[in-house]
Design goal:
mainly alpha; five-stranded mixed β-sheet; about 525 residues; about 65% helix; 5 strands; globular; 25 helices
Amino acid sequence: MVSIQMLCYNYIEYIQMEPRSVHSWRQADCLSFVLNFYNDRTTFLEPGVNNLGNTGDGKIASDFPIVQYAVAQVWKITGQSTMIYRLVDLGFLLLGLLSIYKLYCYWFKDKYWLALLLTGIVYTSTILAYYGPTSLSDIQALGLSCAAFYHFIKWLDNKENRYLYSTLFLFTFAGLLKMSSAFIFAIAIAYFVVRVLFGSQEDKKGLWSYSNVLFLFTPFLPWIAWYSHVHFYNELHHNEFFLIGILPIWEMTFEDATYNTFCLVGDLSSFFLSTSILFLLLVSVLAFLVLKFKSFFTEFYLRVLLPILALICYILLFYQVFNVHDYYLLNMIPILVIVLGLLIKYALEKYMSAFNHVFLPFTLFLVLVFLTHQTAVITRGRIEMGNWGFLSMVISKEKKAYFEWNTWYDRSRYEILENIQEETLDSIGLTKDQKVLCLGDYTINRSLYLINRLGYTDFAQDLGNIDKFLALYKDKRINYLIVIDWDKVSKDKLEPYLKNKVYEKQGTSIYKL
């Protein structure tokens, strides 16, 4: 079933593309780390990107680069290939979906059809469908978190140490790859405490021990070690491209917080999961929490409540990003999985007869088909709309027009750089030892990654003051100037630098300085 959904989401073409469209910025950053490992310019503990940054070395650290380093070693056999990284992330996505299915099979006992359909519905999350085969570390952490939580539930119920060890191993790497996945680990710790406090004597005897408590906190050691290294490493090199920390709501103005609230409720939540499904889930959760409030001090009630509290805490701690950064919600998908699964588990125990009726699986299947189509249209729209999207009735004409314009605009700026050959760059003198400045690229690394060159972009710069901006780079010994979007720069102010054009194609120009 998942493979059919992937075909609907156009993964066959998608995995062959360079980073495009929505948040290609962050995808290119991850690929830039790989490229620098591949070129042997950086080491595992001293990673870096193509953008040379403030100190001219491009050295900066963020997520634990174990996957990026491994992909770089594969590239040394295959050559530079974005598709290989996409396939790796796709593997982590499949691990996550398989773990969700196994968790639901375990909770729902013999209702395999229910586990399969609900897993499929979770996979209709637009952010999961779109970012699944990208190069984001969030997908890797998501897959490991889902697998870790499944193993944790097995340990909680069966008290077998092998599940505890696998849980800690998976959560450790999930947190190293993306620290936000620690929220799922926190839920697991809370579940352990709740089981010890409210479980049976057998549970307490089988779970509570000093060794188990110590083991549960072992992931914090590598987390602290790595992120301490990141902090000191980035301070040493004075590069601050990436967020290491939080962006809480209490540091925002009222106007900005209000705007982000509208964005989160209006747009981003619909990318998390279908608005109608989210609304139904929200009503169900509130109804359960209110009607069962007398059961507050019971294990099941707290198992529903705690993930909701974790989600609220996460959103408040990163509220500043929710004006546009939907991928920050990726590592909260396990919370959706947990709460949805628990409510269905509760319904199964209370209303078993309803789940034995053929009407329910048929209805859920129709819902899954509709949601898959809806997600496919939006995912394809973010990549390349195509005829299927234009013929669909699930999104408005205005949304279709926006998708068409966005994909055209994105492709028009970067397509030349995607396809330019290494030999072409060498023939005009732009060899790998030459530094470039790319104008019209608002990202940190995208253009530099595509041409496999080191240098700078106009990231976070005021192009209205282009002459002053360019003057700053004279000391950095820039050899070539690339312009990919003339609408973003003033040609008059650039005139002194445009004397020696060495390449021109479809609006992309390269000048030797």
